[in-house]
Amino acid sequence: MKKSRGLGAYCAALYAFLYAPLIVMTVYSFNDAHRNVVWRGFTFKWYLTMARDADLMRALTTSLELAACAAAIAAALGLLASYALVRHRPFRGREGYAALLDAPLMIPEVALGVGLLSFLVRAGFELDFGALACAHALICLPYAVAAVRARLASSGGSQLEEAAMDLGASEWRAFLKVTLPLAMPAIVSGALLAFTVSFEDFVASFFLAGVGITTLPIKVYSMLKFGVTPEINALSVALLSSTFVLLGLNAWLSARAGADAA
Amino acid sequence: MLEKALSRLLAGKRPAASHLLLAPAALWLLLFLLIPALGLVALSFAKNGPYGEILWRLSLDNYRRAFDPRYVPVLLRTLFFAGGTTVVCLLLGYPLAYFLSFRAGRRRGALIIALMVPFWTSALVAFYSWIVILGKEGLLNRALLRYRLISSPLALLYTPFSVLLGLVYFYLPFTVLPLYASLEKVPRSLVEAAYDLGATRWTAFLKVTLPLSLPGVVAGALLTFVPCLGDFLTAELLGGPRYYLLGNLISNQFLMAQDWPFGAALTVLLLAGLVAGLWGYRRWEAAA
Fold it and tell me: A196: nearest CA in chain B?
């Protein structure tokens, strides 16, 4: 038993390492000082400064719009693709499609970024909001596909769908009335993951953001590069909290999807 | 009419229906992934003109230049950091994966989600916090000074140490999850059998559990090593120019030096490393 306790303590230390930066920044976001290192008392002022920063709020709006577009595109493309991959009888090239759909996960984002940059510029496209949304949708697509595929592959749905068709429904009506409602939690959960990935993406945006577009991570990066203010702590905590909310929502949806399938 | 067409599309009795449903996603990948990748390959054989324009005089010059003594240190450093990160992550992560699989009991689900949270939070934000912790007047140095463990501040930030720390911090979950998945597949009955035959805990681990979890070790190593090769943000924020890695060199060619053909050649080398890694893994998997 003693050995087991040692292992437990080791794992606790590892978790402390993973969470140390998150805790430090949360604590310092309430620090009433212009520099990070000394604790001078509790304050909310950095959160107010952040909320009053018009540039920051514009960047936030851009990021939210971008993530919404990317998530919507990824969810739609992902649903169609997953349906064919899971429900259709095996066809030639299925493995190839599946590998291709996973590719954006494996390719380093720097390579994606410079590849898209050189392609878009040389093909004469503007590096605008649309271009960035398309790139984000590409990065998010594997997440949307994975969520919906897993749900469609779980057995419950296809039996119900067959039952509906035995009762005389067409494939389309069975899809609308049975499959889609059953898959909805997974579709939303995949879209939420996609939203999170897009919202936090820095590297691809860094290469593709043209003159006019500043997403929130790009704004944070430039604030970091040109002098650190405690405002960034507050902003980081706000970002962190939104991630927690999105992930919590996602866990709740997955649990619901699991409960439905049972 | 429309309902009938849609139904046939969904039924997927013919491959054409499957291809049609997959077409939007496939087109997206073609347009924004495959064509840009092929474009980079083409660009890597071109030449940079005096004003940053691209001259299509095809040659291998850019590849030759990548192995010029000026750039070899960056390539070697990238391999060194990726390898070092992989080793450290495996050593740190294996006991954690073992704990999650064999000892965590009911807390397992929560612990795995807790492991993923730092992965989902923005690396930008986490690295910024590491700057606050590791800086010359950062938290760590102040604490060490206060308790008189050191007499003058340690240089931690913008060193190889901080780059390695950042990489390990970010990629640890990538190592742990495959390790955990393969440890889950180790039949508990085999471990029990080893105990019944008189093996000590340690022997049972060395002779049964560890060999059976080897696929996870290889997968975890690959999933750590390959993304590390293309890492960009860690050295950018925690390393500074002296410790730039391949990802930073590529980014500089595209954003600062405006030498796209050379940057493209470096990216192709990076992608070749990735493909070689995946190919080797497939071979190993097929042989195992």
Answer: B120
Place of tokens 């039952």: A163
| pTM for the whole structure | 0.90
One-character DSSP codes across A42-108: B--HHHHHHHH-HHHHHHHHHHHHHHHHHHHHHHHHHHHHHHHHHHSPP-TTHHHHHHHHHHHHHS-
Best probe of the A interface among B129, B162, B229, B270, by most A CBs < 10 A, is: B129
- Digit-by-digit pLDDT tens for chain B (288 residues) are 788 888 888 888 888 899 999 999 999 999 999 999 999 999 999 998 888 788 898 999 999 999 999 999 999 999 999 999 999 999 999 999 999 999 888 888 889 988 988 778 888 888 988 988 998 888 888 888 889 888 888 888 999 999 999 999 999 999 999 999 999 999 999 999 999 998 988 899 999 999 999 999 999 999 899 889 999 999 999 998 888 999 999 999 999 888 999 999 999 999 999 999 889 888 988 887
Are B230 and A110 in contact (CB < 8 Å)?
yes
Domain range A47-261, CATH class: mainly alpha
Minimal C-alpha gap between A78 and chain B (Å) = 7
> Looking at the domain assignment, is residue B11 inside a domain?
no
What is the total count of domains within chain B?
1
Q: What distance separates the 2 farthest-apart alpha carbons in chain B?
A: 83
Q: How far apart are CA A136 and CA A64, in angstroms?
A: 12
Which residue intervals of chain A bear CATH 1.10.3720.10?
47-261
pLDDT digits (tens, 9 = 90+) for A50-89: 888 898 899 999 999 999 999 999 999 999 999 999 988 8
CA B33, CA B14: separation in Å to the nearest integer?
Answer: 28
d(CA B202, CA B199): 8
Establish if B276 belongs to a structural domain.
yes
A12 vs B18: CA distance, rounded Å: 48
CB distance B129–A220 less than 8 Å? no
Kindly state whether A107 is in contact with chain B, defined as any CB-CB distance less than 8 angstroms. Answer: yes
The parent domain of residue B74 ranges over 56-287
Rg (alpha carbons) of chain A, rounded to whole number: 22
In a domain, B23, yes or no: no
Residues in chain B: 288
Measuring CA to CA, which residue among B40, B111, B5, B280 is closest to residue A116?
Answer: B40
Q: What number of other Cβ atoms are within 10 A of residue B258's Cβ?
A: 14
Write down the residue that tokens 């609308």 correspond to: A176
Closest by alpha carbon to A104, among A199, A189, A204? A204
CA angle B238, A211, A74 (to 5 degrees): 80
